[in-house]
Amino acid sequence: MKAAGIVVEYNPFHNGHLHHARSAKESAGADILVAVMSGQFLQRGEPAFADKWRRTEMALANGVDLVIELPYVYATAQASDFARGSITLLEAIGCEAFCFGSEQGAIEPFLKSRQLLNKENLAYQQRIHEAVQSGISYPKAMNEAYQEVTGGQEGFADLTKPNNILGYHYIEAAERISSSMQPLTVQRIGANYHDPITEGLSIASATGIRKAFFEGGSLEELSAYLPAYSIEALQNFAKEYGRFGSWETFYPMLRFTILREKPENLRQFAEVTEGIEHLIYEAARKEQDFEAFIGRIKSKRFTRTRIQRMLTHIFTGFTWEMLKSFKQPSYLRLLGMTQAGRQYLNAQKKNISLPIISRAADLADNRMGKIDIQASSLYLLGLGSSNLKKEFTTPPIYFG
Fold first, then answer.
1. Please, which of 30, 89, 299, 333 could form a disulfide with 4 given CB 3.0 to 4.6 Å?
2. Residue 281 annotated as binding site
């Protein structure tokens, strides 16, 4: 059985994701589709709209055969580390190809860009360092350095686009771990990453869908953009929790967590740097809603995404020391499978290079796993759940 891998968040699973899943399986000629999926917190430093179990159900109902959780350490990391964790897991579970959605739509420009940056790495890194020292954000510094290195020539990947950036880092990560997987990409169609919902289109961005919902739209009104099972899963989630995950929902707890600490204590948390702890503390002291709070902090140097990752780590208690102590994933946490996924695991178990974990209890002595469990408990608390043991009582979802 040939397996292809994808890296996802499904926040929530929409029609664009359905297109990606189907196209990935088809382009790889695969029998099995494996998704490495972020858990309760996401790469842009946000609580997930719905928990990882509901998003697993959405995936399994729409063409994915195995869902593996990307550990918190990587799920909330900058793009290069997010990609490294994800690609390592896909390699470990035996995928023969990985496929990402991109604005580029062709794999050759990514391979050409990787070849160039390997050759010009010293000059590229020096230009990034100089640009950051001038006071601009790291993503902008990377883009400026990249534009200088490519010299405006055609044929390279456009690394100003969010999915292209991640795609480049997937290829970089695969190269660095000497992966045997074939890299593939499919064209992102419909809305762009941050676009609002557009009438008449059946594909909207997850950002646009969440924005429309939080501005008063109902799940039923969003049904044109999501597969039927996604709507059903989200309706069940709403019945269980009465709310959806967002920083507005979690802000009272985040604010308490920040104000409980002295500003200098905030420096211990991952990604908090350059004195921003004072801004974070003062903003929490003055502002009662999240948008006003983050509006006081973001700047030319600190993007919203970077700040949100800091806030995620403060909220979960994830420190610089923890971040620096991990070099690679140490397990495959199974969230769900179809019948075909189960058959694949049974057939390939001798060839899978990391232990497959199906129970949270088996992570009790694993440092990386304990961070996942802690983050999940705090996510559930942020939703107002009374069942903080859900991590231990929820088995892998079987969709057959």
1. 30
2. no
* Contacts with 154 (C-beta within 8 Å, 6 or more apart), sequence order: none
The answer on whether 12 is annotated among ligand-binding residues is yes
| pLDDT tens per residue, range 134-156 | 888 878 888 888 888 888 788 99
Annotated ligand binding at 236? The verdict is: no
Q: Is 7 annotated as ligand-binding?
A: yes
Q: Does 355 count as an annotated binding residue?
A: no
**Residue 278 marked in a binding site:** no
Q: Which of 183, 182, 179 is nearest to 89 (CA)?
A: 179
Task: Answer yes or no: is 16 a known binding residue.
Answer: yes
Q: Helices marked H in 29-63 — which ranges? A: 52-60
Residue 129 is assigned to a ligand binding site: no
Is 313 labelled as part of a ligand binding site?
no
Asked if residue 189 belongs to a known ligand binding site, the reply is yes
Would the annotation count 163 as a binding residue? yes
Is position 164 annotated in a ligand binding site? no
CA dihedral of 380, 386, 387, 388, whole degrees rounded to 10: 50
What does each C-alpha distance from 186 to 161, 196, 326 come to in angstroms?
A: 14, 22, 32
Of the candidates 63, 73, 83, 52, the one whose C-alpha atom is nearest the C-alpha of residue 18 is 63
* Nearest-angstrom CA–CA distance, 42 and 46: 5
Structure tokens, 212: 């429309």
**Residue corresponding to tokens 């707890």:** 253
Residue 300's pLDDT is: 79
Domains of the chain, start order: 1-102+183-241+327-396 (3.40.50.620), 107-158 (no CATH), 245-322 (no CATH)
Beta-bridge mates of residue 67: 35, 336
